[in-house]
């Protein structure tokens, strides 16, 4: 009799737990923190993205610089007569603070006529960026932390990617304030037009880590406003713990796809 009561009681507990899960609408895995990725790019159009190109008002996508082709965001200069320092950025319209961002990119084709030599196979992903609305019409770069993307130019010559550049910002690395404009990562060099996996781990102003093809290549912390290209002088020395994400156009064609974000504040 006791054994029968034990089994009846056990069955009732299982039924009760099952009903609770159904009522909450959550699985056991989601209660533990299931990964939820937000697709920032729908593969069809530039919905939720806006262009800001030097010399033009916000939203004017000069010469169709940023376009969507075959499920990719393509940065293209085929309709330019000359680049003429028309540095551009494509901003996602929602700012974030703590997140994981991952995407794929590759350099293609030849540099636009009139592009600077240093901008050959050079682009970037800006994070913690000032809002596009706050940029001057003739501003080169937004105040931000730039994850600099580079491609190899000559076999045997190292040119790492996912470096750190700092338009209007400084960071701390190994407990030291870094004021150099760019710092190289320890990634390998990619010479062709293969797709590269980029992932960023961002915890506000506490920690930022760059990964290339799932390998950590750089880490730093405490980004703050200051230094070269600082267009926000009134905020000199202020901490940067959130901001917009932007894709850069610097005169060499580049393509982006599979752009997604996990908002760590919501986990």
Short characterization:
The chain is mainly beta. It has helices at 2-24, 28-31; strands at 38-39, 49-53, 66-69, 72-75, 88-92, 98-107, 122-129, 145-150, 163-165, 169-173, 176-178, 182-183, 196-203, 207-212, 215-225, 244-249, 254-263.
Task: Give the ordered list of helices and strands.
Answer: HHEEEEEEEEEEEEEEEEE
Rg from C-alpha positions?
23 Å
- CATH topology heading of the largest domain: Jelly Rolls
- What's the CATH class of the largest domain, please? Mainly Beta
Overall pLDDT metric? 89
How many E-type strands? 17
Write up this protein.
By secondary structure, the chain is mainly beta. The chain starts with a helix and ends with a strand. The chain has 2 helices and 17 strands. It has helices at 2-24, 28-31; strands at residues 38-39, 49-53, 66-69, 72-75, 88-92, 98-107, 122-129, 145-150, 163-165, 169-173, 176-178, 182-183, 196-203, 207-212, 215-225, 244-249, 254-263. The model is unreliable at 1-32 (pLDDT under 50). The strands form 2 sheets. Strands 1, 3, 4, 6, 10, 11, 13, 14, 15 and 17 form a 10-stranded antiparallel β-sheet that branches. Strands 2-5-16-7-8-9-12 form a 7-stranded antiparallel β-sheet, with no helix packed on it. The longest helix is centred in the N-terminal third of the chain and has 23 residues, at 2-24. The protein has 2 domains: 1-31; 35-266, Jelly Rolls (Sandwich), CATH 2.60.120.560.
């Amino acid at each position: 009799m006791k054994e029968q009561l034990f089994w009846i009681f056990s069955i009732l507990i299982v039924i009760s737990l099952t009903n609770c899960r159904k009522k909450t609408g959550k699985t056991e895995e989601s209660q533990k923190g299931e990964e939820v990725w937000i697709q920032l790019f729908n593969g069809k159009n530039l919905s939720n993205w806006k262009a800001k190109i030097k010399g033009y008002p916000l939203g004017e996508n000069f010469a169709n610089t940023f376009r969507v082709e075959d499920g990719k965001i393509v940065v293209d200069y085929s309709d330019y007569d000359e680049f003429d320092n028309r540095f551009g950025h494509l901003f996602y319209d929602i700012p974030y603070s703590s997140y994981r961002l991952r995407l794929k990119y590759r350099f293609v084709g030849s540099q636009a006529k009139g592009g600077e030599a240093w901008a050959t196979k050079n682009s970037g992903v800006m994070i913690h960026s000032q809002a596009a609305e706050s940029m001057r019409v003739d501003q080169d770069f937004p105040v931000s932390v730039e994850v600099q993307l580079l491609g190899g130019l000559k076999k045997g010559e190292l040119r790492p990617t996912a470096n750190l550049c700092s338009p209007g910002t400084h960071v701390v690395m190994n407990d030291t304030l870094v004021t150099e404009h760019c710092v190289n990562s320890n990634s390998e060099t990619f010479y062709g037009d293969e797709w590269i996996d980029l992932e960023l781990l961002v915890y506000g102003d506490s920690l930022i880590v760059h990964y290339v093809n799932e390998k950590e290549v750089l880490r730093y912390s405490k980004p703050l406003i200051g230094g070269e290209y600082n267009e926000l002088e009134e905020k000199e020395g202020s901490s940067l713990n959130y901001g917009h994400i932007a894709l850069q156009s610097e005169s060499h064609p580049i393509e982006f796809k599979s752009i997604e974000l996990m908002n760590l504040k919501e986990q």
